[in-house]
Amino acid sequence: MNRKFILINIILILLIIAVYIFEYYIENYPMMFNLINSIKECGIEYLAVILSFTALVSYLISSLNIKGLSFKTKFLRILPVVNFPVLAFFAYLSINGWAEKQRKVSAIENRYAQQAAEDIKNDLVTIQFGGGFPLLLHDRATLNKIDGIRKRYGVRYINTGCVIDGFETTGQEKYSEIVYPHLTRRNGKGWEDRMQKEIDHVEKNSHP
Predict the structure, then answer these.
(1) What pLDDT is stored for residue 129 in this prediction?
(2) Residue 27: what pLDDT?
(3) Final residue in a domain of this structure, among 103, 134, 168
(4) Over the stretch 57-74, which tens digit does the pLDDT of each residue have?
(5) Does residue 164 lie within any of the structural domains?
(6) How many domains does the chain have?
(7) pLDDT value at position 176?
(8) Residue 116 lies in a domain
(9) Number of C-alpha atoms within 13 angstroms, CB side, residue 147?
(10) To the nearest 10°, the Cα dihedral for 177, 182, 184, 186?
């Protein structure tokens, strides 16, 4: 009988740990999930304190005389009862947090989708990228020629800097999903290579 409750306790504690780590991931969504980093950064020591507290509460309750059961039997039966609310609490935080993040992602994707439709209508889409602070390697006349080439292909590029919010990145990915097929229909396959060759030619003949 005790083996059964030992197994129940092990499973319950593992579930608590898993949900606790997942709740940390939800807080930082939409970052890429990395188990090792999540374990290191989620503050697992605080969970250890919580589980130690539930173990202490179970120990104190088990010290009471209950139906003549042994201390070990009482402890193994009481511990999951005390730990279950902990699991339910972290599960609630995870589910609630996930729903909130998905609402935010949906709102941002809708905003970028509307922007993509408007830019396609205006025949000039904007491709954003993160690459630090831009360096002006060419004179203004050369930069204007490059911008003119890109505009002829119906596109412009904007450097958003070093730090890009994860939600904005998700929105930009949605934007790209919509505009790139349009650009291919507009300019034909391989348009980026053709555009880049034209830009390379201008840069080669420019004055730094």
Answers:
(1) 76
(2) 86
(3) 103
(4) 999 999 988 777 889 999
(5) yes
(6) 2
(7) 93
(8) no
(9) 9
(10) -170
pLDDT at 161: 66
136 lies in the same domain as 98? no
Same domain, 36 and 98: yes
Range of the domain at 152: 123-204
Same domain (yes/no): 89, 23: yes
Is the separation of the CB atoms in 83 and 56 below 8 Å? no
The residues of the chain scoring below 70 in pLDDT are 1, 130-138, 161-164, 207-208
This prediction has a pTM of: 0.73
For residue 89, tell me if it sits in a domain: yes
How far is residue 112's CA from residue 127's CA, in Å, rounded to a whole number? 12
Q: Is 113 inside any structural domain?
A: no
pLDDT attached to residue 159: 79
Residues 6 and 86 grouped into a single domain: yes
Do 9 and 92 fall into the same domain?
yes
